[in-house]
TrEMBL record:
Keyword terms of this UniProt record: Isomerase
Pfam families in the record: His_Phos_1
The UniProt record lists the keyword Isomerase: yes
Leader sequence segment: none
This protein's name: Phosphoglycerate mutase family protein
Length: 234
């Protein structure tokens, strides 16, 4: 089975670095809408197989992102609350570094498996977060043939935390240095029982990313976007 994870398109909260995780959330901005509109062409290029199902986080920006792809293939988007973002809890919509650091450091503890019981203030712990997302993936894949392709439109932090815990071949250094960019695709093959093998991370093969060995500083998507904009890939 092929699992395609798509991060939602850009919102203004992405630009400001706000911890925007609650329903309904900020809508796609102009750039995000253009990214969503371009998804069918990108999907055809990177995946090229009609999905059997398209599920998406019930948060508005994920639903908006999924809509053009679903329309292209004549499918309905199935909303799933379990596919939502890592919850910020009491820090919801904060932008100050003192709060974003807590969010990132907690995500590090989960991604590395060092402290799965650490809790986001007023929200879930790592064990609860991964179990929730596992349920969403189980529903997405339930009852399908081994050669089926499925799509989940989700969020950036859960992509990193769940991905590094569940996708073989995804390293902590890669998710730390290069979080998935808006409207990018991560592709894995396998199934929930046997596990998943990473094929693409944020539109590229894992080995194509210029990962610096030993650099484990977890960067925000905003920081990474600024780095990527200053780099030239050959």
């Amino acid at each position: 089975m092929r699992l395609v994870l798509i991060r939602h398109g850009q919102t203004n909260s992405n630009l400001t670095g706000a911890l925007d995780t609650a329903y309904p959330g900020a809508p796609l901005n102009e750039t995000g809408l253009a990214q969503a509109a371009a998804l069918p062409e990108k999907y055809e290029r990177l995946v090229g197989v009609k999905p059997a199902r398209i599920h998406a986080s019930f948060i508005g920006r994920a639903q908006e992102t999924a809509a053009p792809l679903a329309k292209h293939y004549g499918l309905e988007v199935v909303p799933d609350e379990d596919l939502r973002e890592v919850l910020a809890g009491d820090m919801e919509m904060e932008t100050a570094k003192e709060y974003t650091d807590v969010y990132l450091h907690t995500a590090v503890a989960w991604a590395t498996g060092q402290d799965m019981e650490r809790r986001m203030p007023g929200a879930e712990n790592g064990t609860e977060t991964l179990a929730r997302f596992d349920r969403g993936i189980a529903r997405l894949t339930e009852g399908l043939a081994d050669d089926a392709t499925v799509v989940a439109v989700i969020h950036g932090a859960i992509m990193r935390v769940w991905g590094v815990q569940r996708l073989r071949g995804l390293t902590y250094e890669l998710i730390a240095q290069f979080p998935c960019q808006n409207a990018s695709m991560t592709v894995a093959e396998g199934n929930p029982e046997a596990g998943w093998d990473l094929k693409l991370w944020s539109d590229q093969t894992p080995e194509s990313w210029p990962v610096i060995p030993g650099d484990t500083t977890l960067r925000t998507s905003k920081e990474t976007r600024e780095i990527l904009e200053s780099m030239i890939y050959h």
